[in-house]
Amino acid sequence: MTYNDLKDLLDTESHRINRQSFIAEDPVQFPRRFSDKRDIEIAALLASTIAWGKRSMICRNADRLLSLMDNQPYEYVMERGYEDLPDCNIHRTFFARNLRHYLRGLHHVYARYGSLEDFAAKALAGVEDHHSWHLADALNRCLAEANDGNSDSRCLPLGLDKSALKRFNMALRWLVRDDGIVDLGIWTVIKPSQLYVPLDVHVGNISRQLGLLMRKANDRQAVDELTEALRRFNPQDPVIYDYALFGLGVSGRGGELAEMANDL
Q1: How far apart, in whole angstroms, are the C-alpha atoms of residue 13 and residue 182?
Q2: 162-173: per-residue pLDDT in tens?
Q3: Could you give the angle at the alpha carbon of 108 between the alpha carbons of 107 and 109, nearest 5°?
Q4: Residue 251 has what pLDDT?
Q5: What's the whole-model pTM score?
């Protein structure tokens, strides 16, 4: 497989998956329910936070989570409705106590900055290298401040020097990419060219089979390596290929593609 063959494959798969029909079975549907920027931001953070496991379960539980907030996430946060939230399971190992922790921090963010994007701007997210990790660190500190100095790794990872930040990078993809198809593109503080690939096990495996990723661990260094590889094909929008890697992983063509990639 030549460079051009691989680019054609990635472009074709991205075009096949990055369509309106993708939305109905993906967690991206939840921030898309709203028109107010603040509702979109909160829904994006929460839906991405519980985005691990079967997509059907993720979507079912994200829908239930928003129902707990009367489908008015910003108003619920600002009125501190979460303090009356009964103990319950939200999604797998994410419970009401974790949600309360997150929403207390978001109350601080919105009360002080007005929007999550303005918070990101103050945190220099569009200026600093590795902005995802820089912004996650700033948000973790805000969450801890709102919770008597306590941290909660169920909300955002704490070991940011190692974490791939898969779910947070996915939320940023939703908020930043602006091609008008699946992702919402409501932020300008970060450019699409600055985004990092949301790296999970399946994306990591197919990327290795294609020769795009050599590192064995699915960690922060692997995100760097894979994103840089994808920038060769599309410097302005490397994360468009998240759709391609997802689609190729689901298709079960890994063995065939690995054999083809050996010729690259």
Answers
A1: 15
A2: 999 999 999 999
A3: 90
A4: 75
A5: 0.95
Q: Which amino acid is at 91?
A: H
Judging by beta carbons within 10 Å of its beta carbon (0-12, 13-18, 19+), is residue 144 exposed, middle or buried? middle
As given in the structure block, the two tokens for residue 113 are: 């900055």
CB 97, CB 87: distance < 8 Å? yes
Given the structure tokens 């805000």, which residue do they identify? 142
SS (H, E, C) 107-165: HHHHHHHCCHHHHHHHCCCCCCCCHHHHHHHHHHHHHHHHCCCCCCCCCCCCCCCCCCC
Distance CA 261, CA 238 (A): 19
Contact status, residue 199 vs residue 163, Cβ threshold 8 Å: no
For residue range 191-217, what is the model confidence (pLDDT) as tens digits? 999 999 999 999 999 999 999 999 999
pLDDT of 109 reads 98
